[in-house]
Amino acid sequence: MKIIKKIKNKVNDYATLVMFSHTIFSLSFALIAMLLAAEGLPSLDTMFWILVAFMGARTGANAINRVIDAEIDAKNARTANRQIPSGLMNKKEVIIFTMICFMVMVLGALQLNTLCFILSPLAIFLMTIYSYTKRFTWACHLVLGITSAAAPVGAWLAVTGKISLLPLLMGAANTLWVAGFDVIYGAQDYEFDKAHGIHSIPARFGVRKALMIARVFHALAWVILVAIGLMSKQLNVIYEIGMLVIGILFIIEHKLVSPDNLTNVKIASYQINQVISIVFLICGVLATVL
Known about the structure:
79% of the residues lie in helices and 0% in strands. By secondary structure, the chain is mainly alpha-helical.
C-alpha cells in the first residue's frame, strides 16, 4: 500500500508540475487544425502520432519552464509551493523528464513526415526560450502565445506536409488568445515583478493598461476565429454559434477583473478560458465532421 501511495503521489506531482489540467488550451486548436487539414478525420495512425507529438511537446515545455523559473518561483509567495521550490521534486529529475518528453515529441514528428521532424528542433527552441523572455522583454506573453500556436500549425503540417494561410491564422488567434489570458494572470504579480525586475506587460504598462491590452488581444483573436469560419468551406453554422458563445465568454472574462479588483483573476484567466477551449473544440469538431 505504501508503494502504491508513493507512486500515486509521484504521478500527482508530475501532473501538477506540468499543469496537466491546462492541456485543453492548445489541444483544442491542434485538433481543429488537424480536422480542417484532413477535410474530415485523418487516419488513426496520423491522429495517434499527432497526439504523441503534442503531449510530448506540451509536457516537456511546462517541465522545462519549471526548471528555469525555479529560483524566481521560490521568491514569489504565490509560486513558492510549486514542486521544485518546495522540495517535492529536484531539478535533475525534472530535466531528465523534460528530455524524455522532448524525445517523445521528436519521435512523433519523425513518424508523421520529414518536415515535422526537421522543424522539431525549432519547436524545442521556442518552448525553452520562452522561460527566459520574462528576464528581458515585456513581450513574453506573446512568445508564450507563439509557442502555443505551434500546436495548430504543427497539426496542419502533420496532415498536409505543407503550410497555408488557414493554419497561420489559427496560430495567430491562438497566440493572441493565450497572450491575453496570460496578461490577465500576470496582473496579480505586478508588485513582485516590479520589485524583482521581471518583465511583463503589467509591470511595463501598469495593471489598468495591461487589462486593456488583454482585451485588445482577445478581440483580435475572436475576429480572426470568425474570419477562419468565413474562409473555411468545412465550418458551418455550428461553428458560428460557437463563436457567438465564445464572444460572450470573452466579455464575461473581462468583466470579472478590474485594476481595483483582481480577486477573480484565476477564474477569468484559467477557468473561463477552459470553457472557451471546450466550446471551440466541440463546435469545431461538430462543424467539421457533420
